[in-house]
Design goal:
Blueprint: H1 20-24, H2 30-33, H3 68-74, E1 80-83, E2 91-95, E3 98-105, H4 112-125, E4 141-147, E5 153-161, E6 178-183, E7 186-193, H5 200-215, E8 224-229, E9 240-245
Antiparallel strand pairs: 1-2, 2-7, 3-5, 3-6, 4-5, 4-8, 7-9, 8-9
Amino acid sequence: PPKYRQHSGIKEEAEGSFTREEADGYKECEEYLADPDNEDLYENAANETGTAPNGQHHLLRRHKPKPAAQICNNKECPVFDELESSGCGYETRLLARANWTTTMVDLDRPEGFREAYIRLYRYSSGANNDRGEKMSFLSPVVETYWLDQNSKVVNAVMSVYIPQQFQSNPPASTTKEVWVSEYPDYKIYSRAFGGYREDPEFFNQFALLKSSLERDNITPFPHARLTGGWTHHGFGRQRMEVVLVDDAYM
């Protein structure tokens, strides 16, 4: 059965010393590396006080993503197997069946994503689950965008993996806005991005991912796009991912 993703050889203290392939989790396509828009613009903007010019502890420019190896060596991650990818430009994983907490995202509200995040956090903190269980709030925070026949977003949900300790019997939500979903095994394809969703280049990763899959004659499910936030937004080296699901698993 799939096991927790455990890695060695990439230490947290070796910040920035890892290779591009270690950072991404896959071999990048040469033509993407040659594109100026995909340059590694790593810049630690912190000054002698430890804060960036805007007062926050974070990187202001695009950079190599934080390796999933570092993240999952330091805290629990969803259970998945890494599968061999046919080509370059993406990572292939088999995500194991598991329980996740989920809530709708109100796309019409400027604070819709923040409000969804808070609802999931309150469930994990014990405030809004029927046993008052306090659970770790794990990464990644996954946003699923459902698309219509014209590839227009019709709605979105946000989900967080329930820790293994509670997988067999997760607490029930005490609010109708949050529910526990058992997701089946999924074969997924992903690209990593070091930076913030506000960077226009982030959502361009979907086009690069789709192009890489087409080159390998892989058909993703056309009506869903997922993003995964693996790191604390605004603090330190970031890891965002764009994800497409294999059509055979939907």
